Amino acid sequence: MLRALGYPRLVSVENFRTPNFPLVAEVLAWVVKRFDPKAEDLPSIVETEHDRVLFIRMVAQFMATKAHVRLNTKKLYQADGFAVQEILKALTLLYSALQNNDPDNDLEDEGGTTHNFDMSNRTGELKQIRALASNITTKGAALFDLLRREVNLREMRTNVMNRPLEVIDVERGLQEAVAACEAELRETQKAIENVATDEATVEAKCEKKKTALERNQKRLLAIKKSRPAFMDEYEKLEEQLKIHYNTFVQRFMSLSYLELRLEENEKNELSQMSQREALH
Questions:
Q1: Residues 6+ positions from 119 with CB-CB distance below 8 Å
Q2: Is the dihedral of CA 211, 214, 219, 222 positive or negative?
């Protein structure tokens, strides 16, 4: 994957059979530069334990804030196969961006053959981010308004909770709730009765339409079976029309052929006359 991303040297898993912190640091520094070429320079000296801890902490913080990738600092510090798994998280993100990029803009001269990770063409994601930011702002404003009203609401709620309950008030509330339930029940029963009435009306209309349909179908069959009085004369005239049409077509073809032959004869006569005049 490093080779596809344009890393300037070959790296194998065998390089990490034993802890190899200098190579891990080199790869991590290169990855950070690929994400943000303007990122601050990382410590180049990683000989002491303090330098290594500082380097790993800076890389993990950068990846978490810029690329939203969480790296396990303990595994990175081990600089072995577990560190390779953590590095692959960032490399996978870069490789997926490379696959989504326009292939005409992938290559860039930078000492060797490298790839350009231009995120400007991902307009769809930018639109989603803008919409999400707008939604977060709206929700935040609504939440702020609710929290501001909570001061008064808390006081009102406390007063209601601390107020002693009167039996008369409780009874009145229950009676109102029962009355509301009874009114809703009556409305529901009325709606059910209306549904039954509507169902009977619809069934009567369906029966009426069905009867009309059967009557029209019978009438249609009767019309199909009946033969008009003028049908015999119509068929005779149709046969005569076919004969006259065939005669017309034959005569028209003959006339067209004769006109064509007449035109050819006239052209031949004109050409012969011109040849005779040329001889004299």
A1: 97
A2: negative
- Two structure tokens written together for 211: 């009867």
Paired tokens of 115 = 């790839």
Are 116 and 108 in contact by the 8 Å Cβ rule? The answer is yes
User: What pLDDT score was predicted for residue 48?
Assistant: 85
Token readout for 258 is 């004769």
Q: Are 70 and 64 in contact (CB under 8 A)?
A: yes
How many residues appear in the chain? 280
Helices 81-100 + 21-35 axis angle, to 10: 20
State the Cα–Cα distance between residues 118 and 158, nearest whole angstrom.
57
| Domain residue ranges in the chain | 2-121, 122-163, 237-280
- Which residue stretches of the chain have pLDDT < 50? 102, 104-115, 117
Partners of 112 in the β-ladder:
110
For the stretch 203-245, pLDDT in tens is 999 999 999 999 999 999 888 888 777 888 888 999 999 999 9
pLDDT, residue 165, reads 67
Confidence (pLDDT) at 262: 94
Q: How many CA atoms lie within 13 A of 97 on its CB side?
A: 19
Q: What is the pTM of this model?
A: 0.36
6 Cβ neighbours under 8 A, 6+ residues apart: 110, 112, 113, 114, 115
Residue 109 φ/ψ region, left for φ over 0, alpha for ψ in the -120 to 50 degree band, beta for the rest:
beta
| Pairwise CA distance, residues 133 & 209, whole Å | 59
Q: How far is CA 125 from CA 21, 36, 98, 129, 216, in A?
A: 36, 19, 16, 6, 63
